[in-house]
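Retry 2 of 3 after timeout on previous attempt. Resubmitting structure tokens to design endpoint.
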């Protein structure tokens, strides 16, 4: 039985081994990663610009320094509404809600890449400001 399995079930026995070309791909990826300091710096600079623009407009971006920029809105409904508004504007934004984040800490998670232009990031900020203005107008209308 052992000889039979060794000779007839080779794909099962050796299925966990990586193909040799994977080693070459990993080596190439490591070489690329070593040489991408300018791209990493550009990415962090772009994320910092987005955070600063959002903070200037009064949005809470938490204490982050990465390319993932949160916009803490607090309430689930507001977060989902903001995400839907931004999606209609062409942005791939999702709301993050409990239990992923603490209760009262619902937020938008913005993932910045170097392929997103400064102008697009500012358009996102302006779209979020427009959403907030609409929310404020609706709230005043309900209380009037």
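Retry 2 succeeded. Sequence:
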């Amino acid at each position: 039985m052992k000889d039979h399995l060794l000779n007839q079930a080779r794909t099962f026995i050796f299925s966990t081994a990586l193909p040799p070309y994977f080693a070459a791909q990993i080596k190439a990826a490591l070489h690329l990663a070593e040489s991408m300091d300018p791209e990493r710096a550009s990415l962090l600079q772009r994320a910092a610009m987005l955070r600063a623009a959002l903070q200037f407009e009064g949005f809470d971006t938490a204490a982050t320094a990465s390319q993932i920029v949160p916009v803490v809105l607090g309430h689930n409904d507001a977060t989902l509404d903001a995400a839907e508004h931004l999606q209609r504007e062409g942005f791939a934004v999702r709301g993050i809600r409990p239990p992923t984040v603490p209760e009262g800490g619902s937020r938008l998670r913005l993932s910045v890449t170097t392929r997103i232009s400064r102008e697009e990031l500012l358009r996102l900020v302006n779209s979020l400001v427009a959403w907030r203005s609409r929310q404020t107008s609706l709230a005043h209308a309900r209380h009037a």
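Attempt log closed. Helices lie at 2-8, 10-13, 20-34, 37-56, 76-88, 118-143.
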